[in-house]
Every structure is written in structure tokens, then in C-alpha cells.
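Homework-ish question, so no full write-ups if that breaks the rules, but can someone show me the predicted structure for this set?
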Amino acid sequence: MSPIFHPRVELPSDQHRYSTLHQRVCEIFQLLIWISNNLGAESTTMKVVVCVKQIPDPALPGELDPSTNYLKRDDKLILDESDSYGVEMALQLVESAGGGEVSLVSMAPNGEVSGLRTALAMGAEEAVLISDDALAGSDALGTARVLAAAISKMSPDLVLAGVESSDGYTGTVPEMIAGVLEMPSITFAKQIEIDGNTVKVQRQTEAGYDDVECATPALVSVTAGVVEPRYPSFKGIMAAKKKPLEELDLAALGIDSSTVGKNGARQETVRVTDAEERQAGEVIEDEGDAHQKIVEFLGELKIV
Amino acid sequence: MSVETILVFGEGDESGPSVLTLELLAAARGLATNVEVFVAGDGAAVATELGAHGASTVYSTGALDGKLMGVHAAATLQTHLDSNPADAVFFGQTADGRDTAARLAVRLDQPVITNNVGAVIEDGTLVVEEPVFGGTQNVFTAFRNEGPSLALFRPKSFEAEPAGGGTAAVVPVDVVDPGAAGSATVTGRHIEERSGPQLDDAEVVVSGGRGLGQPEAYAMVDELAGLLGAASGASRAIVDAGWVPYAKQVGQTGKVVKPNVYVACGISGATQHLVGMKGSKNIIAINKDPEAPIFGVADLGIVGDVHKVIPALIEALKAR
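A: Not a homework solution, just the prediction itself:
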């Protein structure tokens, strides 16, 4: 919380006794700024931490490293689109609460920050990156332990995450983080509302949605597509370059490297095979009669 | 080491166990000598059907009274597994399945492997198969842990088949209180209206994508689906854009469908979508871009404008 400053409204001295209208307006304006800043300061208690993953560009063909069978992550990583919904949701919640702070936490190899900078440019205040060579080969549980350790240092009211990443899509990391932090959680949120110390969520289900609520601090995972992630403005991109970004390793988090990474995962890829590819069939250009071809095909299959 | 007991995390609703639960039972039966089911709900009501599909015992917590399932089921499962050990626990890749497996993994300090479509025993060890890169490659992963292996499976990975067993024994289980972490409560349920054939089991599925151009054009997809007795589906692009509800989404993050015929209208065929439908027996694709990846899996591909081809197709079907 920012310290409270007193307004710089000086007592009028003799020579200023007959101050101009301009000076008066300035003084009142300063007072208003002070009031609004400090009213804001009193309500800026909500701290939201958003978990973001930085992934290989999904538009490029993915590849497994033949020596380890891990997904190759050597090229520049970008903000996972799935997580942009969590960032946007956090920004909206803080805006509607009238103040607060959105922080980011991410785990990535080689000190990668490109995706974090994108989320900072959207409007998050600060970011923490955990990067350590010993983390290569971490599974969902190892990843959750690391993120949870970083989050616990940040003392958030609310932790947000995407439901699942676009590269690994295990969909288990957010709930595991809540498990490690022994925090209540609500997954698959399509709408989130903060009401005092309660978080109210519309949780997507197979049949529709459920209303679910719990006390904060809590973790909520956000379904893709439920908000429209903002595009970073030029100003936002420039500001993001100066925002605080802390890089931590396992030692800084007090995590034993044998519990994470390849050893902690306790699983081994025994082989990778090529799937049987579907053969492409007939492709024709529509010249006004392609629909008849479809009817014939459906007829052969006895659908019509 | 061998695999003797597999515990299946059973799910379902008033109408009975889910098809996915029965698929997991079929898979587990082929791997272990004893298959049991844990139901975070009324297990007695489904014991006959689960028994017929090969379950020897059904552990039942009874109704959870509005508590969110995952965290409570995991706390209860941890205590349960202490006195009723299992070599592996199989979960369906569902919302509650993922929540429960994730919380249980933390409690037991055991790895969980997700998104599987197959499982085998090799040298006494469970090895699971996960498709990657839109199903172009399969990764086989062996568990190397001490204690129960946790695995999640995608729907329609196995064929559900009765095994001819009698009613399973029902054993009540006390719900273990997870403390403050379990404070999330369900205060209301909203069921979206569903009519006509459902995506999960429809013989024919007609799906629309971004190529429809605008939300109103999805009406063509519905009309064509109606004429073919089909369920209507969608790509993630138009679900994210808010044209149609999530329940219609076919793909990695939506439903996996394997109908006799899949008709893709204005869908380019992103990896995310292909994963959910390339198991269909026959695929018809209509798209104006001849380079669209969907043509790589289509049995009949039409390079053309959906706004011309589909209305013509609808007229032709009506005229029959």
C-alpha cells in the first residue's frame, strides 16, 4: 500500500492574502488529488497473482527433443493465449474493485521473459520468473510446487490461472497449486465476482454452469474465451520495459532440486511413435454442383 | 511388481454411470486382476451396472451436499487408499476428474499423467499413451514411482463393454474433511437446455467454424444438422467469439467426437480441432481455402464458399 502524503496546501501568507482565482483553483485541485489518491489507497488492498505460462509459438510446428523427449523450448517463448484470459480477468477485477495490484508468476527455461513483458504491457504491475536448469523435465506436480512456493511469498488475496496450457494441456497445475498452498479453489470459471472476502464464480459444467463460492484467499482457474484480452497499447509496451521483474532460482525458493525436474517427475518416456495418419480423400473445387457430390456420398453411407 | 488392483474414479448422474466411467472399467479389466470403483456420491445406485462392467467393489461416499467435489474426493481417497491399496487410480479427463487427481497427487506426493488414450502393462509397470502435436505422434510414458500411479484418460479411448459380472459389493466410505481448503460450496445449478441429438453419441455431427463469417450464419449449420438428424458442433474460434455455447465445442478443450459422419463447415482444421474429430469414420469438409489442413483428413473435401454450398445442400436434401 502506498504511503499517505499530506496535501501540499500551504497556509496563505500575507502577501498571498489576495490570491488569484487561478491559485485557488490549483489549491482545490491539489486537495482533490490528495483525497482521491488516499481514498484509492484505502481500497487498494486486493492483490491478485496470475500464473502465466510462456510457450513455444503454437503457430510453428512443435518438436520433441530426440535426446530427452521433452518439448523443444529453445526458441523465443510467448505468452500462452490461454493465460491472457486470466491476466485480463485479474485486470478487470482490480479495476472494478477500485484499485489493487496484479502480479504475475511464471516458470520458464533460460530466463525467458518475453511472455511476461506482454502481460506487463497489458497492465500487470510486476512479475516473478522462476528459472533454473534443474527444472528441466518437471511434471505438473513439480511445476505446481515451484509456482506455489513463489506465490506464497506474494501473499495474494486471489490466485488466477488458465484452465490448461496450450502446449501441455494437463489442466491440473492450478488445482495442484491450491493443493500445495492448502487453499480453496474453483476451477473452470466463466465469470468471477469479488464480494468482500468472498469470491463468487460461475463454474462451467457439462450441462451448463454452477454457482460456486468460497472465502479468499482462493485460487480460481479461468476458462479460455470468457473475457476479451486487451491489446497492449504502445504506452503499455513502453511502460512494461521498466516494470519490476524478479528472477528467482530454486535455492531462492528453498526447494530441493531432487523433488522437481526430471527426478521429481518419477516417470519415463519409453518410446515415441508416429500415429497412423488418416489418408486424405477426394478434394474437388465447387463449380455450383458440389452439394450433389455431398448428397451422393451421404447416400453411399446410407445417411440419406 | 505387477498390477493387481486398479481403482476407477466413477462419475455419473441421475441416469447412471457415465459412458467414460464404463470405458475406464473396460480398460482396467484388461490390465488388472481386480477392478474397484470409488464414487464420490451415491455408489449404491450404480452398483449393478458397474458390477456388470467388471467392478468387484464400489466404494461410496454418499451425497456430498453441495460441496465442490475434487478437494473432498481427494481427501477421502487418500484415507481410503491407506487401508485399501491400489496399484493405479484411473480418472476420466473431466472437470471433477482433473480436480480430484490434482489434489490427490499433492496429498500422496505421486505423479499424475493426463490426456491418455491407451494403457498397457510392460515389465509389471503401467505405461500410458498420450497423443501429442494434434495426434500425429504418440508418447508412451512409464510410471517410475512407488505407490499408486494416477492416470487420466480422454473420452472414447476405449470401448465400453459389459463383462457379465453381477452387482458389485457396496462399501460405504466416510467423507474426510479437507479443512479450510474445502470451503468452496455450490449454491446453484444451471442446466442449459439441450434438445435433439447430443454431440457425444450422435451418428452424424455438423460443425461450423470461423469461415461462416458471422454468428447468424450458424443457423445454416443447425438447419443442415436438423435435416441429417445430426448434432451441431463448433470450432473453438467461434465458441471463444461467443457465437455458440461452450457445450458445442469440438476439440482438445471441448468434446471428442467419433461419429459415422463429420461435416466441417468453414473450419480450417487447427490442431486443437483435429484432435477432437479425426477419429470420425467419414469426414466431409467445406472450406474456401484449398490449403486448409482440414482437407488433409477429409474423405470428401469441397473447396468452395460455405454460403453457396450449404444452402444448395439444404435445398437438395429438402427436395428428396
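Now go work out the reasoning yourself. Hint: Chain B has eight helices and 18 strands.
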